[in-house]
Queue: 2 jobs
Job 1
Amino acid sequence: MTRSRDDGAGTQDFADDIAVLCPRCGALAHVLARTRLTCPACSLHQTRPRPRLFAADGASLERTAAPDWHGPFVQIAAGPARCSRCGNGLSPPRRVIAAGKRPDNMTDAGEGRCAGCGEDSPVETLWTPLLAAAQGREPYFGTRLYLLEETGRGVVWAYNRRHAQALLDWIAADLRERGPSTGARTMAAMLPGWMKAARNRDAVAKSLNRLIDQSV
Ligand SMILES: [Zn+2]
Ligand SMILES: [Zn+2]
């Protein structure tokens, strides 16, 4: 019987070299050290001083124009906004721009509806990078992952060959044993339930094997 241990390796442990599709030419490109996007085919090269961070709702914590973000954008309040009638906190409606497009202006004036009294009040808004779950993109430049397979149940993806192999080892194991240092963010804990379900295990393992074959 194969045994697998959730050893606390999180997705971030595989993020040193992420295989992605170049947002400019579509060739295989790389996100290195979570701060550099580089494409050997078209010489696209973008660098960031530090990895991008996101709030729990998926909005970037950076308040900049984000020329190095290639994923979707979400509209948020530019600062604290309050209802003009009752003083309740106010948010603009959650609007999203799909990946591949950019907002015309990063800042905008919008209207927010107060959840307390229903009054509409003006809100200064800005567009910021959005990290959406299960969208098949990496969280540093928002580029599309190279190792990705759409299945009937969801998207199977990996950052690189080593990551795909680690996922396969874990999925393929007959017995899953949790290690002593596991936390909520470990790789196994972060896998969606459908990938861990016994009935999907063979299909997911086949997808991961194809990703491993595809990786260079
Ligand atoms: Zn390119
Ligand atoms: Zn109000």
Job 2
Amino acid sequence: MSAPLIEVRSVSRHYRLPRVSLLRAPAVLTAVESTSFTIRAGETLGIVGESGSGKSTLARMVMAFEKPDSGQVLFQGQDLHALSATELRKLRQKFQMVFQDPFGSLDPRRKIGWSIAEPLRAIGVDANTARRTAEALEQVGLHPRDAEKYPHEFSGGQRQRIAIARAIVTRPALLVADEAVSALDVSVQAQILNLLMDLQDQLGLGILFISHDLAVVAAICDHILVMQHGKPLESGPAAQVLHRPAHLYTQTLLKAAGVSP
Ligand SMILES: Nc1ncnc2c1ncn2[C@@H]1O[C@H](COP(=O)(O)OP(=O)(O)OP(=O)(O)O)[C@@H](O)[C@H]1O
Ligand SMILES: [Mg+2]
């Protein structure tokens, strides 16, 4: 087995809620509690759970946008939250996020070539950005000439391809996709999922795939982690979680998604 790309070790994250009374300590919400998982090159881990179960909080900690209160996130053996800002900036090109809402994350006044090259500029790569943008557009099934167009000239599915192009332009080893297909029609969803799988085959990507929809997760993931109220409820190979769920809650998610155990 290859070495882990990402190793999440018992991370927890709490949020302090607004104080309701001067006489009382503010309440603390546990968004994620003692959650662990590992993703290797070429593997897809699906995280499922209903709204508020802590999925996006986990994604933000994996992306080092947010620090866990306890626990560690190791990327290729390096503790992300122990790195200096400069070290983290350098390493960032190896793990990228596919944003959920390409409508919100693409600047409507900028040509999409500019938006796709943004992560390259963020890590200080100035050379060959046009060539690398063209390459990323081709990898997601668009045309290099599309770099000159504006977001409104594309369909929802094409915009999601652009979001993926932006995520792979730095040639990452890990993609984090948080509800990346949730806003799309089912047929377009399938195309985007196929694209992710093709890119994974070609580039050997590890993928952290987050969705509230177990049907989508079932379609592409090798391993599944079910979250409930910030806690890991069950995890294992996809076939096991889907066909022999250990918890009633997982069975409910399966039913809601129309996946029969
Ligand atoms: N910045 C924050 N401040 C306070 N509470 C937060 C913050 N971010 C998340 N939370 C709370 O933490 C819990 C987990 O939220 P999170 O966004 O991780 O859930 P999720 O599983 O991604 O939900 P969804 O499916 O709706 O995207 C929720 O109760 C949420 O309200
Ligand atoms: Mg979320």
